[in-house]
Amino acid sequence: MGATTADNIVRKELAEEVILLDIKEGLAEGKAQDISQTAALLGFDSKIKGVTNDYSQTAGSTVAVITSGIPRKPGMTREELIGTNANIVKDVALNLLKYSPDVILVVVSNPMDTMTYLALKATGLPKNRIIGMGGTLDSSRFKYQLSERLGASPADLNAIVIGGHGDTTMIPLIRHATWNSLPVTAFLSEEEQAEVVNDTMVGGATLTKLIGTSAWYAPGASSAAVVESIVRDQKKLFTASVYLEGEYGQTDINIGVPVILGKNGWERILELPLDESEQAEFAKSADAVRSMNNVLKEIGAW
Ligand SMILES: NC(=O)c1ccc[n+]([C@@H]2O[C@H](COP(=O)([O-])OP(=O)(O)OC[C@H]3O[C@@H](n4cnc5c(N)ncnc54)[C@H](O)[C@@H]3O)[C@@H](O)[C@H]2O)c1
After folding, report:
1. pLDDT tens readout for residues 91-106
2. Which of 204, 247, 263, 295 is most buried, with most CB under 10 Å away?
3. pLDDT tens for residues 271-287?
4. 112 CB less than 6 Å from ligand 1?
């Protein structure tokens, strides 16, 4: 999925150069060459280079997307990846910082909210430079499910998912979703709405079951969209996992909320008025993320 992210980034020429880094000998070099060989066909000038664990090559990076770690297998939850991925994400984040002290980190590895919190605690970076990518993907999957039910163009839909990036912790906000400004709830029965919400929540697990490993096209496109808003200073609104200090009634946690992304990382949190049941769902989701974070504390992850 790291390679698909890079593929999307070079196609859009979001960077002069992209470095693909992996621990497995030759893998990043091979993927980078493969992507480079599409340049003549697709007409982009961005360079892409692959390296095996050589962080000096990443020096002076503006943005780094961390996708390293193990993905889930069918039947696994994102949370089961915690121990292995904690060591990897911490190691990668600290190595990146050695060579790029001003870098903005986009954390994608799962369990993403907990890995984002770990990256923040382990690096001590200002909170605005640590962004967890999950809600952007979940929101795109939510729009896909809505488009299928409504027969609508996905680009005509506005819909966001907040909360933790987990099968049971994400909250697709169907009450707020619109179809070119018309409420989608006007066109879907309560049963259909419940189906859309449920299918969105298990969207990742459904694909893991079909493919046999974690999906990569939509995750890669979502990570690249986050990078684009940062490097082009677009100030786009995305759901991202950011550090809360009282917003949405939560403190000392990274979890998905609507934010503005620009050249300074996440620049502003938008506080959406939630109704009572949405508030209760958000608090429950935060409790689940916090219990994952406590596992990190127990194993002394930072
Ligand atoms: N947040 C999201 O929306 C989202 C979406 C999809 C996948 N994911 C997560 O992203 C992660 C990657 O998924 P994937 O499908 O790309 O897996 P993958 O196995 O295809 O790729 C992971 C890569 O990380 C490399 N790696 C392992 N340890 C490393 C280290 N210490 N340094 C550098 N590289 C290292 C591996 O060699 C491997 O090539 C998983 O944790 C997955 O669950 C998150």
Report:
1. 999 999 999 999 999 9
2. 204
3. 999 999 999 999 999 99
4. yes
Q: Rounded CA gap, 291 and 208, in Å?
A: 24
Residue nearest to atom 5 of ligand 1 (CA): 219
- CA within 13 Å, CB half, 165: 32
Q: What angle do CA 196, 203, 235 make, to 5 degrees?
A: 85
246: left (phi over 0), alpha (psi -120 to 50) or beta: left
Positions annotated as catalytic residues are: 165
pTM above 0.90, yes or no: yes
CA distance 141 to 27: 29
Pocket flag, ligand 1, residue 3 (CB < 6 Å): no
Q: Is 154 exposed, middle or buried (0-12, 13-18, 19+ CB in 10 A)?
A: middle
- Determine the distance separating the centroid of ligand 1 and the alpha carbon of 271, expressed in angstroms: 31
